[in-house]
Automatic annotation (TrEMBL):
Belongs to the G-protein coupled receptor 1 family. PROSITE patterns: G_PROTEIN_RECEP_F1_1 (PS00237), G_PROTEIN_RECEP_F1_2 (PS50262). It is found in: Cell membrane. One of its GO terms (molecular function) is trace-amine receptor activity. SMART domains: 7TM_GPCR_Srsx (SM01381). It comes from Dicentrarchus labrax. It comes from the Eukaryota. The chain crosses the membrane at residues 50-74, 86-105, 125-143, 164-183, 203-233, 270-290, 302-322. InterPro entries: GPCR_Rhodpsn (IPR000276), GPCR_Rhodpsn_7TM (IPR017452), TAAR (IPR050569). This is G-protein coupled receptors family 1 profile domain-containing protein. CDD domains: 7tmA_TAARs (cd15055). Residues 66-319 form the G-protein coupled receptors family 1 profile domain.
Length: 349
């Protein structure tokens, strides 16, 4: 009787295992040896998976390379050691790390995290810090340009290298403290929101998400819009003043063309900065506040996170590529002329 019962138990286990394997057929486990606790890889068309890989890899590589060029340029050439360029350097450093961290997002494309809970927390924590520092540096750059254009006579006394260095340090320290509070739960208990082994989820409760929305999006974008609107008004006013003064000694038609170009340039600058910032950050914050308990995993938000990180790829284009000195420095870097003696003294400006 005991042997019969044992045989039936074994048979029942075999049937259960067979049913389980049929259920798992067509899907792969992140950790096949952990049959009951492992996460499953999402079933995606091969084309979609390859497209995500190519897109994220391209953005990651381009972000790292472009920002590394900015870092080398400003750090190496002495002529570029100015307060404004220090801000560009801080922005490039934060965006460079965003590019590197994006490689971890590529790892999550398959829906599996193979580096453990501690590395998951470290990845999330660093990603939030560097993106927050990037946004904060953008705001400081706006303030710098506001003072330079609207109060040019006081710029040299108000904006010094020491003050800029202090502002940059405060920006990074505030980002560190703020994101520590936002991600307090997962820092204290790594993996507490993971439902299975091989998962790395981004959890933000309603209060933390609201605070992040206010201080990482609403406040920065408000400051940027207000400052750039003021810059635009001042630029237009200066163009009109110049037109009225020169009208007496030159052709009115020529002055109108010059003033119109100045107005369009100011409008383009305002439009590029604000629109790019909104396009890249709005989708993430809209998704982040869709509910009380919000889980953002790579499977469901690859596009949103990709777009969020893409802002760091565009920053060097917006803030550096329009500078002639950057194009000159790229030539010297690519041709390895920066390895020559006294290359740091080269005339870049």
């Amino acid at each position: 009787m005991a042997e019969s019962f044992g045989h039936k138990a074994v048979r029942a286990q075999q049937i259960l295992l067979s049913v389980l394997m049929e259920t798992l057929e067509g899907s792969e486990l992140c950790f096949p040896q952990l049959l009951n606790t492992s996460c499953r890889k999402p079933v995606r068309p091969h084309f979609e998976t390859m497209l995500i890989y190519i897109l994220l890899s391209s953005i990651s590589l381009l972000t790292a390379v472009l920002n590394l060029l900015v870092i080398i340029s400003i750090s190496h050439f002495k002529q570029l050691h100015t307060p404004t360029n220090l801000l560009l350097l801080s922005l490039a450093v934060s965006d460079f790390f965003v590019g590197l961290l994006l490689f971890f997002q590529i790892m999550l494309t398959d829906g599996c995290w193979f580096f453990g809970d501690l590395m998951c927390v470290a990845y999330q924590y660093l990603a939030y810090i560097v993106t927050s520092a990037s946004v904060g540096t953008m705001v400081i750059i706006c303030v710098d340009r506001y003072v330079a254009i609207c109060h040019p006579l006081h710029y040299s006394t108000k904006v010094t290298q020491k003050r800029v260095q202090v502002c940059i340090c405060l920006c990074w320290i505030c980002s560190l403290i703020f994101q520590s509070l936002i991600l307090k739960d997962i820092i204290e208990q790594p993996g507490r929101y993971n439902s299975c082994i091989g998962e790395c989820v981004f959890f933000i409760n309603y209060i933390a998400g609201l605070a992040d929305l206010i201080f990482s999006f609403i406040v920065p974008i408000t400051i940027i819009v207000v400052l750039y609107m003021r810059i635009f008004v001042v630029a237009v006013s200066q163009a009109r003043t110049m037109r009225s003064h020169i009208a007496a000694v030159t052709l009115q038609k020529s002055v109108k063309v010059t003033a119109k170009k100045s107005e369009m340039k100011a409008a383009r600058t305002l439009g590029v900065v604000v629109v790019v910032f909104l396009i890249c950050l709005c989708p993430y914050y809209c998704v982040a506040l869709t509910g009380q308990d919000n889980f953002l995993n790579a499977s469901s938000s690859a596009f949103v996170i990709c777009l969020f990180f893409f802002n760091s790829c565009l920053n060097p284009m917006i803030y550096a590529f329009f500078y002639p000195w950057f194009r000159k420095s790229i030539k010297l870097i690519v041709t390895l002329k920066i390895l020559q003696p006294d290359s740091c003294e080269a005339n870049i400006l």
